[in-house]
Design brief:
single chain; mainly alpha; two-stranded parallel ribbon; 5 strands; 54% helix; elongated
């Protein structure tokens, strides 16, 4: 069978596309946030001052930090009297593996891509080292002299789309500091992000469970929070299917049925326990970067195929349930559970009410707080607790109502007392 000229052209086109196709989608670890999730709050996924990796590379509003990347590399090479060529060769050796980590097409040619790897990677490694070792800093380094730059960098380096593969950072750390000390690099990273992390980031076991692979800085932060499988099984707070659990009422309604709230003084940010009518929750500081931080962690979890890794999504669901209105936020603030740096309780409740919009949840997903929800709902379903809540809503909802009820009780007691006294007096006279 003869192939006409048009068919031959199509065949060549298809062959070329197949040749450039990634060997396996499972190799992808850095994605762009899909539109359905992004459109809820697009700004939460966009860098403010620095581009890391190819997705935001070259944007005009991020040009300022490109000079700082070059300056950090130059200062390091001068300090060590080193040659940039060996770093370029090391990045060239990792180029293909690095490209395979990005799910979206990358338009940069080989030279541009390797240069990006070197400048972005060296900047991150030097930034983390200078944060920990003050003597490495320049006297007038604006990155450490201006708080707004430091805060924006912490935020931007934890964006889902704004990442370099972790193995690139580890290779550069090997060359810049000490070979095969990746545990120390993890420690430096978690120390750097301590200001933005709810529980200050660092734990003794900074590399997480061996079963989880660290893909980038955001992944490191996420894995650092994951409880061990044995801890989850011990707490018994997981249900395999959604029908095994129901959402809980808000904090105000829970308070009305006799549930008390208490701050956990020591523990991971995700700790939420319920026992003896007391809900114990680790404290959470809400500031300008909190929404972006949680949204990017949730995006990271959305692209994970392991249901047991969706801890942050589940945690935010719990906080969404509890903080349904400004009154709920104020209640949790009074108990030291929420530290509201935004000042406006309505803004805080709005953040958590919308944060899980467009987040995909499959029916067979694990839910880390299923055990907590079951215990809380069991408490709420008891007749005495329901009656107490109804009394509180309908008759004890203002100081004047409470005073009126107390006055009525005093009147009833006095009336009963007078009646008893009269009856006793009658019998004593006889």
């Amino acid at each position: 069978m003869q192939i006409n000229e048009q068919a031959e052209h199509i065949c060549n086109s298809v062959r070329e596309k197949l040749a450039h196709l990634s060997p396996s989608p499972s190799q992808f670890s850095i994605f762009r946030v899909h539109d359905e999730l992004r459109n809820v709050n697009q700004k939460a996924y966009e860098p403010h001052i620095i581009a890391i990796g190819p997705y935001h590379h070259g944007k005009a509003n991020l040009k300022m930090m490109e000079e700082h990347k070059l300056r950090y590399l130059k200062l390091y090479l001068q300090r060590k009297d080193d040659n940039v060529q060996r770093y370029i060769v090391a990045m060239q050796a990792l180029e293909e593996e690095t490209r395979r980590c990005y799910a979206e097409p990358v338009s940069l040619d080989s030279n541009e891509f390797v240069e990006m790897m070197l400048l972005d990677g060296c900047f991150i490694v030097e930034l983390l080292r200078k944060f920990q070792m003050v003597y490495l800093r320049e006297k007038n380094d604006p990155i450490f002299r201006m708080d707004w730059i430091c805060n924006s960098l912490q935020r931007d380096l934890l964006l889902f789309e704004n990442q370099l593969p972790f193995f690139v950072l580890c290779k550069l750390f090997d060359m810049i500091e000490v070979p095969n000390q990746h545990h120390r690099f993890s420690y430096l990273a978690l120390r750097y992000f301590g200001d933005i992390l709810p529980d200050h980031g660092y734990r003794e076991k900074v590399d997480g469970d061996a079963q989880y692979e660290i893909t980038h800085l955001l992944g490191l932060v996420h894995i650092n929070w994951l409880p061990s499988s044995s801890a989850l099984n011990r707490d018994g707070d997981i249900a395999n299917k959604k029908e095994d659990w129901r959402f809980i009422p808000c904090a105000t309604e829970l308070s009305e049925v006799g549930i008390e709230f208490e701050k956990i003084k020591e523990g991971a940010f995700c700790d939420i326990k319920f026992k003896n009518s007391v809900m114990r929750i680790s404290p959470l500081t809400i500031e300008d970067r909190t929404e972006s931080f949680f949204r990017n962690l949730i995006a990271y979890e959305q692209y994970s195929d392991n249901n047991q890794l969706k801890l942050v999504t589940d945690y935010v669901k719990v906080m969404d349930c509890l903080m349904n209105s400004p009154k709920d936020v104020e209640l949790l603030c009074r108990h030291g559970i929420i530290d509201n740096w935004l000042g406006d309780a309505e803004v805080v409740s709005a953040i958590f009410n919308k944060i899980t919009d467009s987040v995909t949840a499959l029916p067979n997903n694990y839910f880390h707080y299923a055990g907590v929800f079951e215990k809380v709902n069991t408490h709420c379903s008891k007749r005495w607790n329901r009656w107490k809540a109804k009394l509180s809503r309908n008759h004890l909802n203002s100081p004047w109502a409470i005073i009126s009820i107390l006055a009525a009780l005093v009147l009833i007691i006095c009336t009963v007392g007078q009646t008893v006294f009269t009856v006793l007096s009658f019998f004593l006279r006889k």
